[in-house]
Amino acid sequence: MDVIEQAAKEGRTAxxxxxxxxxxxxxxxxxxxxILVNEQDELAAAIDRVxxxxxxxxxxxxxxxKTEKALVRLDIRSLDEARAVFNxxxxxMNESGAAVLVQEMVKGPRELMVxxxxxxxxxxxxxxxxxxxxxxxxxxxxxxxxxLEERDALEMMxxxxxxxxxxxxxxxxxxxxxxxxxxxxxxxxxxxxxxRVKEIDINPLIVRGGRPVAAxxxxxxxGPGA
Length: 226
Fold this sequence. Notes:
The protein has helices at 3-9, 17-26, 43-50, 79-93, 134-138, 150-159, 177-193, and strands spanning 34-37, 54-59, 72-76, 99-104, 111-119, 123-130, 141-145, 197-208, 211-214, 217-221. By secondary structure, it is α+β, with helices and mostly antiparallel strands. The strands form two sheets. Strands 5, 6, 7, 8, 9 and 10 form a six-stranded antiparallel beta sheet that branches. A hairpin with a 2-residue loop joins strand 8 and strand 9 (211-214). The model has no long low-confidence stretch (mean pLDDT 93).
């Protein structure tokens, strides 16, 4: 059973971050290496597989704004620190079935954002823009109706005011625009192929070595009877 079908069966209107990324990965969108952990005695094995340093995040379909709720801890460099943070997050979540995501620490000075929204008149629309802390401040984004061709995706990258952030600047490699275009096209495919998906928010999409990787994601589903 796929993650959307399972969520719909449970009457949910959102996927957890972990489930959201499973959906993205099934469409070939690069995601962070991560393992979902329910109990502290699973933590050591997960960290061993992911590798220090790690990020720990509270993970539940009921929680969409993890940072504001202090459910995200970055750059954890030891198992002892991870155990303490794990307990803090589980206590803060205070809900049955809540898990903790053990995620590789992805570093990159450039953060982008890709999204999808389902317009009542036009259908699924793909969005591209600056991510991270600049999302709300600058609102530098471009939109296209899905489905997208590669040329549409490449045009979206030049539409934003800060398009030069994709170039080779300050010693950084240029962003792989073909890979970025593939991500945009595939996000559009999700919206076209599954009308249960109402919104997708991939933010940040961190550029590591010129290649974008989804470090956080949220998929919102249409409610029952929509």
